[in-house]
Design a protein that fits this description.
Shape: globular
Distance between the termini: 9 Å
Order of helices and strands: HHEEHH
Largest sheet: 2 strands, antiparallel
Oligomer: single chain
Strand content: under 5%
Structural class: mainly alpha
Strand order of the largest sheet: 1-2
Number of helices: 4
Length: about 110
Amino acid sequence: MPTHAELATKLLSDAAGFFRNLGEQNAELKGQMEENATVFEQLSGLLQQNPTGEVNGTPVAQLAGKVLKDASQFFVTLAEQNEPIKDQMMENANIYNQLGELVAQDPMGELE
């Protein structure tokens, strides 16, 4: 059974790839999406290396939880603006939001 941190690591990596793809498709967003992707990849690496570690006094798992929740809001915004992908984006938002809560509270916990 994977831990919350292991699942969050995967979601952070997946989101980084999504942001990169989005940036490739939209020149106006490219810079911001590359920046987002880099942050998500770095956080994924930190979480993978030491799920109970800290960065500048803040638990890595809390940072990961916040970033996952931010991604959730981004997916909601995309859903509201793009009817063809609305259902998928809302599902993503739900998953990212829920795991954001779980990893922030208990990075070493396991899904039941």
